Amino acid sequence: MAVWLPALAALAIGGWGITVPSLWRDESVSAVVARSPLSYMRQLMGDIDAVHALYYLLLRPFAAFGGSEFLLRLPSLIAFAGTAYGIAVLGRRLVGPMAGLYGGLLYALLPMASRYAQEVRSYAIVSFVAVLATWLLIDALDSPSRRRYVVYAVSVVLLGWFHLYALLLIGVHAVAVWTARPRRVLPWVLAVAGAGIALVPLVVVASGQRETQLFWLHPPNFEDLTAFLEEIAGNTAAAVVLFSLVACGVWWSRRIPIVALWAFAPILASFLISQVYPVYDPRYVLFVVPAIALLAGIGVHGVTTSLRGHIAVPIIAFVLVGALTFSAHVAIREPAGRPDDLRSLSAVLGAEQRPGDGVLFAPLRYRLFVTVYGEPFRNLIDLTNAPGTYEPRTADQFTAAAASVDRVWLVAPPAGPRNIGDPRFVELRRDFKFVSNRSFGYTRLALYVRNNR
């Protein structure tokens, strides 16, 4: 039960309200691609999204059986439960069964981990593979064999194919091998080199797609780091309690530095690299959260042991963490608890559209994710693309295409210089008058009616 109870708790907490929030833009891209023909997926992988290729393939069977929000989010939920189980197994191996039990249960209670357990993206799976790879490394170091190193290398390949930036964990593994088992460095290097060869194709393709994939990243500052630590726990008070337990865990686990390195070194490395070459985003370092939970669990175990096993210590710790994180759990499970409420946008459009209405996606990429709730969009005349191409229409082409349309729905980000300067938008404002504008998170739906109507 010391290893299964965290997994069961994670399933229960992660499954709570899993279908309530709307799919948002990132999830919607996953859903649209997973439901699309393989030919379209190959084209997308070649253009902008190779880094998520393995995840999209994994998602296809779930999308094939109806593609409901529950089914699409199910792989992340399973990975969340698997991570809690893996933390418990790691804690049992490194410290003892109670440290693993506490760490796994605390992981299940953390709002950030729970939120990505309900996302149609790969981040929960990356956390699971990070735990698996770390366990496999420890197993190979304790009982070295060719088979164990090969299996570890496969886990590294999976880690990179699910998210390249998660390979920052390999630096932690390198330090752990060097400090704990210097004689095991060579077989570890060979295992990582073999994994690196399997990752070369992805690195080559992804490096050419960075500008289209990560143009929005910026160099982080220290406020971003403190915000990340707060996001893990959901609020400041919960973060104070959690990281107090983590501090105790660092002290009690000082003879097994791999856990503390895993918890903090990738964050620091990502922060420093991003000052020159931005790679930092909180979800990109989500794979450190299992280590933070494990450290906190070791802290609870350590304090309990120092007080001669007093049962009040873990009870107080879990009641505090549970009570302080509850409001954050509720917030992320609201219908509009994601950056975009695309379900509500689709419902409004379906209720208010008229036969012969047109739609303009500006910029073009908004079509890829907004149409995940696609029924209302099938009834609209799409004015976005030039005929037979993936290129946006020119201003003249847009004017000609909209000649027979009296009303146009604009799907766009919040108004700003980038989309206001779009030539199609300039033509839209010249020939049509603005009627209404509603925001659904970071996506807005505006209605324009022809001037002479």
UniProtKB/TrEMBL annotation:
Parts of the chain that traverse the membrane: 41-58, 70-88, 94-113, 120-138, 150-178, 185-206, 232-252, 259-278, 284-304, 311-332
Membrane topology: Multi-pass membrane protein
Gene Ontology CC, one term: plasma membrane
Broad class of where this protein is predominantly found: membrane
Cell location: Cell membrane
Domain of life: Bacteria
Biological process, per Gene Ontology: lipopolysaccharide biosynthetic process; response to iron(III) ion
Entry's Gene Ontology molecular function annotations: pentosyltransferase activity
Keywords, alphabetical: Cell membrane, Glycosyltransferase, Membrane, Transferase, Transmembrane, Transmembrane helix
Organism, as annotated: Planotetraspora phitsanulokensis
UniProt name for this protein: Glycosyltransferase RgtA/B/C/D-like domain-containing protein
